[in-house]
Specification:
The structure is a homodimer.
Chain A lengths: L1 H9 L7 H11 L3 E3 L6 E3 L1 H20 L3 E2 L5 E3 H4 L3 H7 L4 E6 L2 E9 L4 H11 L8 E10 L13 E11 L2 H22 L5 E4 L11 E8 L5 E11 L1 H6 L3 E2 L5 E2 L2 E8 L1 H10 L16 E5 L7 H14 L4 E3 L6 H10 L4 E5 L1 H6 L1 E6 L4 E6 L3 H26 L1 E3 L3 H11 L3 E6 L3 H11 L2 E6 L18 E6 L3
Parallel strand pairs in A: 3-7, 15-16, 15-17, 20-21
Antiparallel strand pairs in A: 1-2, 4-6, 5-6, 7-8, 8-14, 9-10, 9-22, 10-11, 11-14, 12-13, 17-18, 18-19, 21-23, 22-23
């Protein structure tokens, strides 16, 4: 039990220092390791396995909605990046520049892609000529680079992994439908598979993606009451098409500009999982993306029959499609309990000689540490049901946290009071639509606009800042 | 049929110009498209889907042999690249250098990884302390950059996709076993799934990976008689461990240096598939990695019941795990035949009203254009058997080409004569082991050493060049 104690002491508690608690989990659960490459990290096997599960599920959802994967170069020539004015303004200050190949200076600098709209546009211009070539529904799984000043594992790093969807359509309507559809796919993914409740909304003008007509996002609330943007979906209109000379011959034989979208989710989702579900014992993983969904801990494993039974149970669970591990190492049971709590394994199964005699075992669910006794001969069904129970349990807990921390306010003073008394959270407040009011809210209260939720309510008819006619309900918050 | 003719005319015949035939296929089968990023390419959906199948199968083989995926940064600080002398000498002349982040000059240049040994070593030094931390069996799926002067799609590009396995072991024996095991995995993969026969061997000293003690490779012979290195596996000894200060406490409580390996396969495999199996009608894909394994062409599809039957057959084949597409577009049957021949779809199924009446359909296998009639009610089994037949058929054809083009020679004149009379191919000839003889063979005959095959034969006891005592049988050839 000495080991057990030691491990738990190793994490800072979240109440003491949430930021330190977060990085402690990243390290102790062996998700990442720092490197001498400033702002970049090693994603270790346990962290990468979570990402592989995210990828597999999302990729399936993309393919089901008709998307195909491609792969663009990682470099963008400076002249190509500059073709769309807003886009280059937004990204040029934060790109990494390649200036030399071997010992030779390049004729033209190349940036490492911060995002790939410009490359997709160049490609579209090559392959799209007729309405018969539309739509193209593309996606790629790659890493991108943005030269951030301050970085944190998963949340903000100079290189991060993501998927970027890029689509091009004959009409604006089709492109807008696509933008909204993918926002829906993102929300479903977060809620169903990551058990993270999200708010679907539109970004304000000042918060749009560089070059977009409109940016949609899903916003989640972390355990500490700060908001995290979990995915974005952009509608570009025909701005990029005009900048890159992409045109198609319509059915009516006219030359038309097509309409585009892009949408992305990143390894940041792993940060969202940690900060939504984690606790002072470590990670709590949503079963759908947990590398190990159930761990079997043999008790008194030196006794005859225990390890054999553990192996038998493992085989049965595996057959039922459950990702299961037996830990038959020489570490103490207490050490093992702590270890798999730290790693957030949703279900722990303890099985010893007496359990085997009784045809039973003990099941402990990670998120609430509830113990129950289960029959060995129906274990696979029980574990499958427990995994669903865990997903629902952590989803409801996260939803409860968000409700508790969502404050409807009608004056700036109310915002300040709510934040002071109840801590950080989402502020729901009305807004007139003017950028100066948006800025002033932030200046005075510290919360910025997160999104204009698609589900609008009218909690007042006046802008919380200027008192003039309100145009939108806005979610405000401090953000990661 | 006009369309049919047009498409076939679009490819240069391989007898006329093999290099042109190759790039024609890359473009016409929609595998890649050029970009304004010199030496880099877009991998289009059809090309990328082949890579996804390669990835899925190989990744499964890696996991079955105990490997875990990780992800290292894409950048390497110059000082880190320089830590191992041979390694930096080999790679520094061909790396891309990042010198600026945004508008600021970096304190230290970063190269875009040409390969990641140095990053793995830095990570090992952080996480390996005891014999209990060994072995680590890692892999990553990423892209790397090498600043090549002349490039060709898939075969040689400035950026390419690959997997790089990196492992670290307590003993030299374990590491050598790993190196050889992964060479075996590569050979099995190529032969079973890509239907490409390969020669397993060791590289000569002059041809080793920068920093390796020994490099193993699998060599394949392309249709034109040129050799292609399809995968490599390196044993590093403890050279990197010493350069990077990686040490572990042994069971006997002594500080020891561990031993390392790395191994990689790349998108070059797609080039190997094209040049091994392709013909003058286009691509011929091995069934295991074909994005579409069977295409159903409805004949007289306007007739009642034809499209319904096609959809029903598609559902049945899908249920049997076959990747199948129905082309019910308005293009002519002739156009469709050409299109799917160009795309290398292994099996074509033609089904029209009369076939349906008879409960039959026509099956055509792409590689030999053989037609047969199959019963509709057992179509899934028939197609599965045909796919195996295709794999075996194209493997045997490739093996036959290699045998026909492998020439055992005992004098340099014989080499020249064989190449002149029979065309390019593998030369089997004995070698004393001296680099000057290796160089001289190349200078005089034009063929370089490809590998020292693991299956050694003694076709003479004298070096083909100097006539002194032979040490090894060597495969020689011109290479891609």
């Amino acid at each position: 039990m000495a080991n057990d104690k030691k491990m738990v002491e190793d994490i800072t508690s979240m109440e003491e220092d949430f930021a330190k608690w977060y990085t402690d989990i990243c390290k102790k659960a062996e998700l990442v390791e720092y490197t001498s490459v400033k702002g970049c990290m090693v994603i270790r096997p346990y962290g990468y396995a979570i990402w592989e599960n995210i990828q597999r599920i999302l990729d399936g959802m993309f393919k089901e909605t008709g998307h195909e994967n491609v792969c663009m170069p990682m470099f963008i020539p400076e002249s190509l990046l500059q073709k769309e004015k807003d886009h280059v303004e937004g990204f040029a200050p934060e790109v990494a520049w390649v200036t030399h190949g071997g010992s030779e200076k390049l004729e033209e600098r190349l940036c490492v892609r911060p995002t790939s709209e410009t490359l997709f546009c160049e490609h579209y211009a090559n392959i799209i000529h007729s309405h018969r070539d539309l739509p193209k529904l593309y996606n790629q799984w790659v890493s991108v680079v943005r030269w951030e000043k301050t970085t944190r594992p998963f949340l903000r790093s100079r290189e991060f992994l993501w998927q970027e969807g890029h689509t091009i359509h004959a009409t604006a309507e089709e492109a807008i439908t696509e933008t909204e559809k993918m926002l829906g796919v993102y929300a479903d993914f977060c809620e169903q598979y990551l058990a993270i409740p999200v708010v679907k909304g539109k970004k304000t003008e000042s918060d749009k993606f560089a070059g977009a007509v409109s940016t949609y996002a899903i916003e989640a609330l972390m355990h500490d009451g700060k908001a995290l943007q979990a995915g974005t979906s952009h509608y570009f209109g025909d701005g990029f098409a005009k900048a890159f000379g992409i045109q198609y011959q319509s059915k009516e034989n006219k030359l038309e500009y097509p309409h585009q979208t892009s949408w992305g989710m990143t390894t940041r989702l792993i940060g969202a999982i940690i900060m939504t579900h984690g606790d002072n014992n470590g990670l709590v993983l949503p079963p759908a993306v947990a590398p190990i969904q159930a761990v079997i801990i043999p008790v008194a494993q030196h006794k005859p029959g225990v390890l054999e039974k553990a192996a038998e149970l493992q085989a049965e669970l595996q057959k039922a499609g459950i990702r299961v591990k037996v830990d038959d190492s020489n570490n103490s049971a207490g050490w093992k309990y702590s270890e798999y709590e730290m790693k957030g394994v949703p279900v722990r199964i303890e099985v010893g000689p007496r359990d085997i005699e009784n045809g039973e075992c003990v099941i402990v669910t990670r998120h609430n540490r509830e113990k129950s006794v289960a029959k060995l001969d129906t274990l696979a069904e029980t574990v499958a049901a427990k995994l669903q129970e865990v997903r629902d349990g952590i989803y409801n807990k996260a939803l409860e946290n968000r409700e508790k921390r969502t404050y409807a306010c009608t004056t700036l003073d109310e915002i300040t009071a709510a934040l002071n008394e109840k801590g950080d959270g989402f502020i729901k407040a009305m807004w007139c639509g003017k950028e100066e009011c948006e800025d002033k809210v932030k200046e005075i209260t510290g919360v910025g606009s997160r999104c204009i939720p698609l589900n609008q309510e009218e909690i007042s008819d006046k802008c919380i800042c200027c008192g003039e006619k309100a145009e939108h309900l806005v979610y405000w918050g401090k953000a990661y």
